């Protein structure tokens, strides 16, 4: 059958790869440029026209940036906060998503809407009452406090995303497992969870993104136990351009790593879903 | 594979829980429990909830009894020094490793952050009653907010101790924030100067000298540059956090009208805006994104600019041979310039008052003030001459600053006084005026009238009297 | 066979989430809400809203917020759909491309702003390339207030770059759940890719699409960092004004007024999506 469509096949393949490559380039080029600038000498950042190839490779700005007090610590803080947030929001939120997906109950739409509405208020203004409350609760300037807020910020999304995922997992499978002797929890773990895992992974990535990049609450609620974005925001605003590149690059790298790890996790499960 | 999935998930969850249950990575706040005995007899404000462990003999360190313990007797107590200055990474390191290195009166933790964060933190602490902050180092314009939030100690007793150093008297007066109590001690100052790329010097108008330009000549200069390079090479810090409004308040308005508020919509003001529009014609339109001018200067998007000394210093540092510092231009009423003042205050109810006072004493010593100039290019608040052992790039900028203050037609414009918490509203009026007249091209007289009315409403609400260069007023300062 | 325990189950499953969100978000929202309506003496007042409405940038911020939304959300939806479909075909090497497409997920607004400013600024990379290729004699001012369409364009590009991955992830997860039979059936009947996409995939993707659009729109109303970096005050947006009033002008009341406005608009937009992209309960697999 392929031979009769071979020309169409080839051109559609070309189109496929072509668009994939263009999109990939579009994504990568800005990152390359930031990396380029971060690893050039200070002078190179001021050159005109800007060099597009790493002719002037130097680690001086990166070194200074990394060695600046608080930077490495803040990376650690960011990682811990993000992990805490993922665990907490999945543990708390996924059951909620399941409830929304499988049950019809009174107040269901109100709940969905209410969760969404909690996301619709700019975080900057929330900080005013939050900071006072946190100080009183001794949560100010702690990792826990930031993780708490991040979890609260991520929960609505986790609930909604997971509910969308659970909705897509056919109910019959669950019920079949139950008739075969599993109780509700077992049916959930053995049947629903594996099928829902890609979606849960997506929810986890989402939560990571929210927590890792969250600047506002982290800035206002911490002073010395900063997460990376808060640290970068505070120290780079008035710093010269080359430091900002170093800071920007530094913020991008851990994200690259984390997504790389998650990507493998996603991969293995696709085969399991489609049949 | 399917069977192992729950196991993997379980492991991940378990691992995360283990990490989460590990002790918190860094010690969080400065311990507020062991109060130094010196703070016990202090009249602590009722809002400060005494920590539960407070007992007369709870301080572990053997300390002397008298309330004003000289800092060298007690082992250094921790002191949180919170500031909005010296935020750039390099400056913070200099503060910690060079300037504060020799201070023995307390174990200083220097934390520097954006104004919004710092003010929020201070006010929130004051509201909650759990004070960890010790010394506060912020700009003159930030203090009124703190005073309104009842967060500042009265420093009048400290003034006597500092009488041996020549702190500029006008600055000390500013430190009273319009009251009769001293709320901050002057710390360091900066100003705004003109910086030019040497490449631009050849285009100066005939007979003009860079050290004594007028605003009209600046426009002509810009015109010459554009004619030769086909690019607009003047620049202004008109970005969202740029300091353009200070230029409007302390340079443009006084130089043309001799005042600010009272003359906001005078004919002189109209002339000023007209002349400024002429300058703007040759200004890089990307100025609306510039928050500091050192980056555009270094990348040569801009050749001539006026900006805060701390926001152009990197230009001199990275390419000392390319730039020259000069006084700001003059207008018909003189060469007005503004001094930006930063001050040191003490958080009300702080646990380590002695340490904070010792820090203030240390930071106002002549040798430390000189170190400030050397390391982070902030100028001393002392009457004495500038030190001579400055690095070359600091010297370059300092020359411009000195020339500006010593110019024959030089006059000082003061920072706004008495605006309380509405400093931001005041600045916004200048920003809006510039946006409407220069960016949107609205009719000058109409805009000035409009904005002056807003100004009057604001000043009336604040009951704020006029400040130099406006003539003194009875009652609220008003635009005529 | 619903036992009492069973009918309480959904509520108990949801309870932790609701408690968390209420305490940490909803209560502070109320407190912040009050800021927009409470005069210093405690009485109810609309003066902050009046001041907001009379502000020079108010109309512009309304206009630009909606304009940006109008351009960015559809552009991203299409882009994300293309990316998701591409990956879904599982062509050779698709995992690498998936990873690449997902990278912007981890990029914060700060970093994205830094990256794109370095490209679009007058002496930035784009102008470097263009002038080295001989296309331009003097650098083109992308970020000049005198060229609003250009500035607007840079914001659309930068924001699309930054946030498309979010939409793509959600759509991709939704695609996974569609049984392969649907795709294969369409193929058997000779439908080419475009038809297949429009008539088979999109309807099945509706729940995910709805979720993705809602989430993206909520974010779009809130983000302003990239706009601030690229356009300064020239292109005000509601969230940016809220931020500026609070942080720069230190006026939390007017900032709260703007925030309330953002809230109202976002709620309206969400309602709009929910109504027009309604997932019927039958599709959702109930009963």
Structure commentary:
- The complex is a heterotrimer of chains A (275), B (480) and C (287).
- Chain A has 275 residues and is mainly α.
- Chain A has two domains: 2-60; 68-269, MetI-like (MetI-like fold, Orthogonal Bundle), CATH 1.10.3720.10.
- Chain A has helices at residues 6-38, 42-45, 60-67, 71-102, 108-117, 123-136, 143-168, 171-179, 184-213, 216-221, 228-236, 241-273.
- Residues 266-275 of chain A have low confidence and may be disordered.
- The longest helix of chain B has 19 residues, at 444-462.
- In chain B, strands 1, 2, 3, 4, 5, 6, 7, 8 and 9 form a nine-stranded mixed beta sheet that branches.
- Chain B has two domains: 43-66 and 73-190 and 339-411, D-Maltodextrin-Binding Protein, domain 2; 192-336 and 412-462, D-Maltodextrin-Binding Protein, domain 2 (3-Layer(aba) Sandwich), CATH 3.40.190.10.
- Chain B has 16 helices and nine strands.
- With 480 residues, chain B is α/β, with parallel strands linked by helices.
- In chain B, helix 8 crosses helix 15 and helix 15 runs antiparallel to helix 16.
- Chain B has helices at residues 4-21, 89-99, 115-128, 143-148, 156-161, 169-174, 215-229, 244-257, 267-280, 294-299, 313-318, 353-363, 366-376, 392-406, 423-439, 444-462; strands at residues 78-83, 107-112, 133-139, 185-197, 234-235, 304-308, 323-326, 335-346, 410-413.
- Chain C has one domain (46-284): MetI-like fold (Orthogonal Bundle).
- Chain C has helices spanning 4-37, 47-54, 58-88, 94-102, 109-120, 125-132, 148-177, 180-188, 193-204, 206-222, 225-231, 238-247, 252-276.
- The longest helix of chain C is centred in the first third of the chain and has 34 residues, at 4-37.
- Chain C has 13 helices and no strands.
- At the A-B interface, helix 2, helix 4, helix 6, helix 9 and helix 11 of A face helix 1, helix 2, strand 2, helix 3 and helix 10 of B.
């Amino acid at each position: 059958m392929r031979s009769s469509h071979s020309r169409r096949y080839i051109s559609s393949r070309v189109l496929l790869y072509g668009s994939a490559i263009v999109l990939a380039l579009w994504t990568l080029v800005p990152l390359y440029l930031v990396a380029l600038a971060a690893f050039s000498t200070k002078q190179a950042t001021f050159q005109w026209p800007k060099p597009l190839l790493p002719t002037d490779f130097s680690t001086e700005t990166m070194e200074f940036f990394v060695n600046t007090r608080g930077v490495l610590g803040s990376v650690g803080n960011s990682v811990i906060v993000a992990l805490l947030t993922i665990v907490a929001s999945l543990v708390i939120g996924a059951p909620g998503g399941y409830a929304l997906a499988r049950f019809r109950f009174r107040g269901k739409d109100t709940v969905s809407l209410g969760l969404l509405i909690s996301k619709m208020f700019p975080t900057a203004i929330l900080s005013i009452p939050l900071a006072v409350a946190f100080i009183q609760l001794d949560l100010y300037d702690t990792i826990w406090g930031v993780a708490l807020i991040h979890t609260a910020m991520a929960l609505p999304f986790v609930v909604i995303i997971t509910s969308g995922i659970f909705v897509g997992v056919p109910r019959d499978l669950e019920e079949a497992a139950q008739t075969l002797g599993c109780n509700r929890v077992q049916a959930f773990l053995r049947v629903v969870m594996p099928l829902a895992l890609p979606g849960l992974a997506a929810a986890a990535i989402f939560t990571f993104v929210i927590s890792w990049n969250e600047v506002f609450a982290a800035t206002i609620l911490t002073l010395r136990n900063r997460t990376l974005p808060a640290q970068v925001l505070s120290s780079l605003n008035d710093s010269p351009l080359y430091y900002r590149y170093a800071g920007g690059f530094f913020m991008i790298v851990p994200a690259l790593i984390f997504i790389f790890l998650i990507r493998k996790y996603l991969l293995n499960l696709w085969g399991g879903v489609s049949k | 594979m399917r069977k192992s999935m729950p196991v993997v998930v379980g492991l991940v969850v378990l691992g995360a829980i283990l990490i989460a249950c590990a002790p918190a990575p860094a010690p969080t706040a400065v311990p507020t429990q062991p109060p130094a005995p010196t703070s016990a007899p202090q009249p602590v404000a009722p809002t400060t909830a005494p920590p539960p462990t407070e007992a007369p003999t709870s301080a572990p360190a053997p300390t002397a009894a008298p309330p004003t313990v000289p800092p060298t007797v007690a082992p250094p107590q921790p002191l949180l020094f919170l500031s909005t200055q010296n935020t750039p990474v390099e400056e913070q390191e200099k503060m910690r490793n060079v300037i504060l290195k020799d201070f023995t009166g307390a174990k200083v933790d220097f934390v520097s952050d954006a104004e919004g964060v710092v003010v929020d933190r201070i006010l929130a602490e004051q509201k909650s009653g759990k004070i960890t902050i010790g010394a506060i180092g912020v700009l003159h314009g930030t203090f009124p907010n703190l005073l309104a939030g009842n967060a500042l100690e009265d420093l009048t007793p400290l003034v006597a101790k500092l009488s041996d150093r020549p702190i500029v008297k006008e600055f000390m007066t500013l430190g009273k924030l319009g009251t009769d109590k001293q709320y901050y001690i002057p710390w360091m100052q900066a100003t705004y100067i003109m910086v030019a790329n040497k490449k631009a010097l050849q285009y100066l108008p005939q007979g003009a000298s860079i050290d004594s330009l007028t605003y009209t000549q600046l426009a002509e200069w810009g015109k010459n540059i554009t004619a030769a390079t086909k690019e607009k090479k003047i620049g202004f810090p008109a970005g969202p956090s740029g300091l353009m409004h200070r230029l409007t308040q302390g340079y443009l308005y006084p130089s043309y009208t001799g005042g600010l508020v009272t003359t906001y919509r005078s004919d002189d003001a109209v002339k000023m805006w007209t002349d400024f529009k002429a300058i703007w014609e040759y200004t890089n339109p990307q100025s609306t994104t510039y928050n500091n001018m050192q980056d555009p200067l270094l990348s040569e998007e801009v050749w001539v600019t006026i900006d805060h000394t701390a926001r152009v210093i990197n230009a001199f540092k990275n390419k000392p041979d390319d730039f020259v510092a000069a006084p700001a231009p003059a207008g018909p009423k003189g060469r007005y310039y503004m001094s930006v003042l930063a001050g040191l205050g003490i958080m009300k109810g702080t646990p380590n008052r002695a340490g904070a006072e010792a820090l203030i004493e240390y930071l106002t010593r002549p040798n430390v003030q000189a170190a400030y100039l050397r390391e982070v290019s902030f100028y001393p608040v002392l009457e004495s001459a500038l030190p001579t052992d400055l690095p070359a790039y600091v010297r370059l900028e300092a020359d411009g600053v000195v020339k500006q203050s010593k110019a024959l037609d030089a006059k000082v414009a003061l920072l706004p006084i008495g605006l309380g918490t509405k400093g931001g509203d005041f600045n916004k009026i200048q920003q809006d005026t510039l946006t409407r007249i220069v960016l949107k091209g609205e009719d000058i007289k109409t805009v000035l009238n409009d904005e002056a009315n807003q100004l009057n409403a604001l000043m009336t609400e604040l009951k704020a009297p006029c400040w130099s260069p406006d003539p003194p007023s009875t009652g609220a300062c008003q635009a005529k | 066979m619903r036992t009492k325990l069973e009918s309480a189950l959904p509520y108990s499953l949801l309870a932790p989430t609701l408690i968390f969100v209420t305490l940490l978000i909803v209560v502070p929202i109320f407190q912040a809400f009050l800021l927009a309506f409470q005069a210093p003496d405690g009485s109810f007042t609309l003066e902050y809203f009046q001041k907001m409405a009379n502000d020079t940038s108010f109309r512009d911020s309304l206009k630009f917020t909606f304009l940006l939304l109008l351009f960015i959300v559809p552009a991203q939806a299409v882009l994300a759909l293309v990316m998701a479909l591409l990956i879904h075909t599982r062509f050779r090497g698709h995992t690498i491309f998936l990873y690449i497409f997902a990278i912007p997920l981890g990029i914060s607004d700060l970093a994205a702003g830094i990256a794109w400013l370095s490209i679009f600024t007058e002496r930035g990379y784009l102008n470097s390339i263009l002038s080295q290729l001989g296309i331009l004699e003097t650098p083109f001012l992308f970020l000049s207030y005198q060229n609003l369409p250009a500035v607007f364009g840079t914001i659309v590009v930068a924001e699309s770059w930054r946030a498309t991955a979010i939409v793509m992830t959600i759509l991709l997860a939704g695609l996974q759940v569609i049984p392969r039979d649907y795709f294969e059936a369409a193929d058997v009947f000779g439908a080419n890719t475009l038809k297949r996409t429009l008539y088979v995939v999109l309807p099945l993707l509706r729940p995910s699409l709805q979720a993705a659009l809602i989430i993206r729109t909520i974010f779009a109303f809130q983000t302003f960092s990239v706009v601030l970096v690229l356009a300064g005050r020239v292109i005000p947006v509601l969230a940016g004004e809220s931020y500026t009033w609070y942080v720069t002008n230190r006026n939390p009341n007017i900032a709260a007024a703007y925030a309330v406005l953002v809230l109202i608009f976002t709620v309206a937009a969400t309602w709009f999506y929910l109504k027009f992209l309604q997932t019927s309960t039958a599709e959702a697999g109930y009963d």
